[in-house]
Amino acid sequence: MRSSDILRTFVALPLSAALHGGLATVQRDLQRSCPAGSVRWVKADGIHLTLFFLGDVLASRLADIQRVLTPVAEASPRVEFAVEGVGTFPNLHRPNVIWVGIRDVTGHLATLHRGVNTALASLGFQPEERAFKPHLTLGRVNRNAGSDAASRVGEAVGRFNLGRLGEECPRELILFRSELKSSGAEYTPLQTFPLGILDTESR
Fold it and tell me: How much is the pTM?
């Protein structure tokens, strides 16, 4: 089997260019407060809202993935979410991931997440067992960062006051390919699924 037959993939909602710009500003502000080299920052223009990580998938399975995700996307009501607040996983005292929060304004984001999980589970993909906590990853604390540096990262995030950065109304769901390169992860859209042919108000 050739390596080109296997694709590392995930399903996500894309973000607007304006929000990418706002996230880049947040990253720069936080970077000034964190110890040098303590965090691996994600490329701002590649940040997205992940709904399902499939992992390595045979290219021959893409048709099946498209078949089960198309009706889920088409049936989705209008999704709207607010982007606000910052934090870390698992907590500020032991930060591993720095994130910006997502608030599901309509409740339809959670519904779409369940639909995507159910559809892909029907193909044998293992759904995420943890509760859905939508967020946008800004960066990850380096594994070789000492406990003091990690503690200072948590303190910097805890002091950072981020109100509402914006609201998003995505119009499509995307199956992305992820390729790890020396310059960082590169994401390529493989399949696009328009969301909700009709807005909720017109149904």
Answer: 0.90
